[in-house]
C-alpha cells in the first residue's frame, strides 16, 4: 500500500513535465525582457543589408533604426549608432512591414540591428536582431563611410553662443555624390533627447573643399527652443540624407536657420513644396571635442532664442 501511494505522485509529476514540454514546443517563447518587441529580420543579398520590421499601429509617429558594429567589440562595449528614421504616414512600400536598406556598411564587418517605435503612449524598443556578417558590399573594409575629423575640435564662444571649427573636417570619398546627397548636421543632446540640426552654408561650403578651419557655427541660429536654458551636450556631426515620397528625391544644402522638419528645402522648383519626408539616412556619428572656459564633457548652456525643428537622433538603444 505504501508503494502505491508513493508511486502515484511520481507518475503525475512525469505527466506534468511532459505536458509542459509540449506546451513550450508549441509556443514562440521568449525568455528575454517581456517589454521588448520581436527583433527585426535582417537579410543580406546583393551586397546590401535589408532590415525588415512590422508596423505596430496606425498612430506610430516614426521609427528609429539602430546598429551595432560587432567586428572588433562585443555587444556590451560596441557603440549604438542611430542610422535612420522612417515616417510611417508617408511610407508606401513594404506592405505590413517597414523596409530599411543599409548600404553604408563595410565588407567583412559584423552587424546587428534594433528599432524603436515612437507612439503616443511612449517609446517601444525591439529586441536586437541576430548578428550578420556582410561578406561582400559596395564598400571595402578600409573605406571611411562618414566624415573624418582627426585632430579637429570646437572652440566655444559664450558671448555669442557659437562654435568655431579648429581643423579641417573631410568628406568620405568612397561614397558617390556624398556632398550633394548628404547634408552636414550637428548632433546635440539635452534632457534625454538627442537631435540633428542642419548646419549653415559656410560649413557646407567648407566641407565641399575639405576646408573648415575657422568656420563658425552660430548655435542660436540652428538649435530649437527645447535646447535652450538647459545643459546641452555637443555630440559631434553626421551626414544626413533626406528622402521624399516622390521618387526618393533628396534635399539640397540648406541655408542658415532653415527648417529641417517635413518641409522641402529645394528652391528651384515650387512643385517640390508638397513633398513629404519618407525616411532619413544617417552616416555614423563623428564625435568632436569642445574646448572653452568651464567646458566639461562637451556640455554648454544656451539662453532662450527662437529656432527650428529637428529630427530625433536619440540613442536609447543600449545593448540590453
Describe this structure as you would to a colleague.
Helices cover 11% and strands 33% of the residues. With 320 residues, it is mainly beta. Mean pLDDT is 80; it is low at 1-31 and 248-272. Strands 3, 4, 6, 7, 8, 11, 12, 14, 15, 16, 18 and 19 form a 12-stranded antiparallel beta sheet that branches. The chain has a 4-stranded mixed beta sheet with strand order 13-10-9-17, with no helix packed on it. A 3-stranded antiparallel beta sheet has the order 1-2-5, with no helix packed on it.
Helix content: 10-25%
Q: Can you count the helices?
A: 3
> First CA to last CA: what distance?
55 Å
Global mean pLDDT: 80
Q: What is the molecular shape?
A: globular
Report the structural category: mainly beta
What distinguishing features does this structure have?
11% helix; disordered N terminus; 320 residues; mainly beta; 19 strands; twelve-stranded antiparallel β-sheet; four-stranded mixed β-sheet
Q: Nutshell version of this structure?
A:
This protein has 3 helices and 19 strands. The protein is mostly beta strands and 320 residues long. Strands 3, 4, 6, 7, 8, 11, 12, 14, 15, 16, 18 and 19 form a 12-stranded antiparallel β-sheet that branches. Strands 13-10-9-17 form a 4-stranded mixed β-sheet, with no helix packed on it.
Topology:
Layout: H1 2-25, E1 41-45, E2 48-54, E3 62-69, E4 80-86, E5 97-102, E6 109-119, E7 122-125, E8 132-134, E9 153-157, E10 162-166, H2 178-181, E11 183-190, E12 193-198, H3 201-208, E13 216-218, E14 231-244, E15 277-282, E16 286-287, E17 290-291, E18 299-301, E19 311-312
Parallel strand pairs: 9-17
Antiparallel strand pairs: 1-2, 2-5, 3-4, 3-6, 4-15, 6-7, 6-8, 9-10, 10-13, 11-12, 11-14, 12-19, 14-15, 14-16, 14-18
